[in-house]
Write a structure and sequence with these properties.
The chain is α/β, with parallel strands linked by helices and 412 residues long. The chain folds into 3 domains: 3-96, no CATH class; 105-270, Glutaredoxin, CATH 3.40.30; 310-412, no CATH class. The chain has helices at 3-35, 40-68, 76-96, 150-165, 185-189, 236-242, 255-268, 275-293, 298-305, 322-328, 336-352, 356-367, 383-395, 399-410; strands at 122-124, 129-132, 136-140, 145-147, 204-208, 220-222, 225-228, 370-371, 377-378. It has a 5-stranded mixed beta sheet, with helices on one face. Strands 1-4 form a two-stranded antiparallel sheet. It has a two-stranded antiparallel ribbon with strand order 8-9.
Amino acid sequence: MNNKKLIMLALAMTLMLMLSSCENTSTIGKIKGDSATESTVQEGEASDHSKDAGHAEEKLDTDSTAESITQDSATQEDASELTASNENATEETVLENTPEVIVNDPSKFPPLITLSGKEADHYVTTDYCYIEGDKFYLLLDKDVDLPGDFADNVSKIMDALEEKVGLTFTSASKNPIMGFDPIKMAAIVSCHDPWEEFYFGQKVPIYIIVNHDGTAWTSHALAGYAYFDLLSLYSDEICNKLGRSKEYYKDFVPYDVIAHELTHVLTQRYTSMTSIMTEGSADYFAEETIRSLAQTSESFSKAVDHFEFDYHVDQNVTVQNAETLFYHDFEDQYDQSYAYGHLLCSFLAETYGNSFMHNYIAALQKIGYYYGGAGYAEWPRDPDKKRADEFKKLFGEKVFTDFAAYYEKNHD
């Protein structure tokens, strides 16, 4: 074949492949876009991922074309086969983006159990076991004492949090840092984790732990899991063995603690926030959630009766320093961020409506307060100023001075 014909064939192939790439890229964008319906935040993420996927496929097709046109022996038949091959490769790429469904082998893990649903009933574990809910797995240690309505109450808390925050635990895209896979329990508390190879999908793994050595651990959560060490859920036998008394907790479970940590899971699946808003919002939504559920059962009403929220900040919040305190995020007095943030969220809800958190998270994602595609938190330049400036853009120039007056009326 002479050079002129080879060049013409190469141009024709390039045009065909570009058209094919554009068509398939649009299809991918539509698939990803359709899946991102949970919130405005998710739509933005899905759009970004669609663009990345499209560019990657265009590069793949272009590289394949460049390699093929250097072969003098190429024919029209070869070109047709190459085009079909590239189309199949593109289809395979789309399929690879579909979440893989993995079925756990029951023989490899502790047994699945169920609870009665009645608060008066109790289930005491003698070995590892787990409970599956619509949005979670309760992964139970040995010597855990659960009331019969515990799993149902966790479900109610998660449903209420989704409604109040305006986000869902099952989002349309995975968090690049966590991938929704938990940091393994063994890495956290240096103990055996029988669920190390368990596939959780997008459900939240909720570890209920007993420290058999008697050392106090702290309940906490990230985007991929929640972890609870609550004396109220220890069995009487292990309490006697450890010489610990749960007399204070004999009649109730601190469901506000559970709601607090699950709020962290929910918000961190979408963004990274300052400690003021991270801890403040968790306290705020925990209280709002448990109070709203108090009418549904005695389990929640008992939890409300034992609320221990503290709204005191050692440094008085004034018109002059309200914004500065927000700047510095109580880096040296982390515990005070709970009180400041809790009242700030209360103020925002009363002033700007119940959608304040959803809107705030969407704003954070736009300015870079989110987990980026490279797998790390992407923060804007000059973050102290940026945090306050964007906060004022969203809630108004007087948001901090107005909050100072609100704080003066409502803090302890």
